[in-house]
Design a protein that fits this description.
There is one protein chain. The protein has 230 residues and is of the alpha+beta class. It has one domain (41-225). It contains four helices and nine strands, in the order H-E-E-E-E-E-E-H-E-E-E-H-H. It has helices spanning 16-60, 150-153, 195-218, 220-225; strands at 66-73, 76-79, 87-93, 99-109, 114-122, 127-135, 159-160, 175-177, 187-189. It has a seven-stranded antiparallel beta sheet. A two-stranded parallel ribbon has the order 8-9. It is globular. The termini are far apart. It comes from Thiohalocapsa marina. It holds the Pfam family FMN_bind. GO terms for molecular function: electron transfer activity; FMN binding. Residues 110-212 form the FMN-binding domain. The chain crosses the membrane at residues 20-40.
């Protein structure tokens, strides 16, 4: 009786250094691709953001047909010439060349992440006349109501932003109140389902306005000089 014994040849183990070398190569290639994609898309994203912001200027300054870019420096407002450093603002002008207002940015943390805004301020009425969300990852249908709900957006048609007697800040802090309880012109009437986003919007507006509005009112002559000439 013959008994056949099958012996399977044991495969040689892959050296650990070879596996590490392969993994390192994959990681290096992946990292390189991420960097290349980032470098390629960065200017595209920046350009898209610039276009979005400039379009938003005319939304938050209704009636404006032209704009002039400004910079907020340590010395105050100045034209946004090449090389000028500082926060970017926009002066909007009506068709007859009169100042419609100044658009300024603001930001605060919402439920998901930082929400970026653009607000329009009219020095003549000392009030906020428009708002626009520039970037947000808030929950669609809930948090994004602060940029889509018509009733909520009425808050920013003439929201009080007068200065205090010293001209160093707002006379009254801009705050969000529970829906239906607004009693003062500097209060933002809240919206159901977007309390966190609404509070972020109020904080962002109040913090930026407290710093920027006094400079806008003080440097009205700079705004007059910036008026576009036909």
């Amino acid at each position: 009786m013959n008994i056949k014994v099958e012996v399977q040849a044991q495969q040689p183990a892959t050296p650990s250094w070879a596996m590490l070398r392969t993994l390192a190569g994959i990681a290096l290639l992946s990292g390189l691709l991420v960097v290349l994609i980032y470098q390629y898309t960065k200017p595209i994203i920046a350009e898209n953001q610039r276009v979005l912001t400039e379009q938003a200027v005319f939304e938050v300054l209704p009636g404006a047909v032209t704009k002039v870019d400004l910079r907020l420096t340590d010395a105050g407002l100045s034209p946004a010439d090449a090389g000028t450093e500082g926060l970017r603002l926009f002066a909007g002008f009506n068709a007859d060349g009169t100042l419609r207002g100044v658009a300024f940015p603001a930001a605060a943390r919402g439920y998901q992440d930082i929400i970026e805004f653009l607000f329009g301020y009219d020095p003549a009425c000392a009030c906020i006349i428009g708002s626009k969300v520039l970037r947000s990852t808030e929950t669609p249908g809930l948090g994004d109501k602060i940029d889509t709900d018509p009733a909520f957006l009425q808050n920013f048609e003439a929201l009080d932003a007068r200065l205090n007697a010293a001209g160093t800040g707002l006379a009254n802090a801009i705050v969000l109140v529970k829906h239906g309880t607004k009693t003062e012109p500097w209060q933002i009437d809240g919206i159901s389902g977007a309390t966190i986003s609404g509070n972020a919007m109020a904080r962002a507006l109040n913090q930026s306005a407290q710093q920027i509005v006094p400079v806008i009112q003080r440097d009205r002559d700079v705004l007059s000089a910036a008026t576009p000439r036909p």
